[in-house]
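Not sure how to ask, but would you mind making up any protein sequence you like and the tokens describing how it folds?
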Amino acid sequence: MPPARKRTRTYDPVKIRAAVLAQFGNVRQGVRTLTEEQLARPARLGDWSVRELAAHLTMAVETVSRNLDRPEPGAKELALLDWPFATAARAGDIADGTRELAHDNPDLDALYTRVEQRITERLATAPDDRLLAARTGAMTLADYLVTRTVELVVHTDDLNRAAGTDIPLDRQALAACTRLLADALAVKAPGASTEVRIPPYAVVQCVEGPRHTRGTPPNVVETDPLTWIRLASGRTEWKTALDEAKVSASGERADLGGLLPLMG
């Protein structure tokens, strides 16, 4: 696990709950418009189809409801900033579960309706400090919901690119996703020699080396939120983003290629 970290950013639980519900609602509306031809397209995620990707998006939310139905674990096991580094271990189980879910639920709208109803009902009464027995490790509900913004935003973008849709990204969900992944970079590469700017949502300092104290730092990386999310999740390679002018990087410590992606 990455070494010592800086003070963890805080998130407004009320806004995060609203963001998760809003983004899931956006996806639900978008999935309703998909044709059979679109659903059959490759999702560019292993051997998944768009239909399987659409089914998988419900898992990001249903896991909250399912864990709220389970007994509460005795102790917290995973901090919020540990979560991005714990996702790779579950890739195989997730792939198998996704294929089964898509096969068992040919009516995607009915699946989305059921999942949306369950999460809305359970969040209405669940306290923020309620522990969830997530497979990555026990977390508070408040922290786990922040991770749901990452799952929803990343896979909404996957869906848009694979199916040619334009499902909107909720601003608060996009902000939380961007910030969590930016902070994860600072955990993975602690230091203060490089400033990574992702306007308008995040600025973090990372990478060992001389610390700047005033003025413009000697090493600066800047990109937009969606490009950053694609880099951090492995959807886009560092060199590709540079070549396409999606990222600007100046300074001898501004090459983040060896640190990305952050998630498996």
About this structure: The beta strands are 131-132, 139-140, 194-198, 202-206, 219-223, 247-250. The chain is about 50% helix and 10% strand.
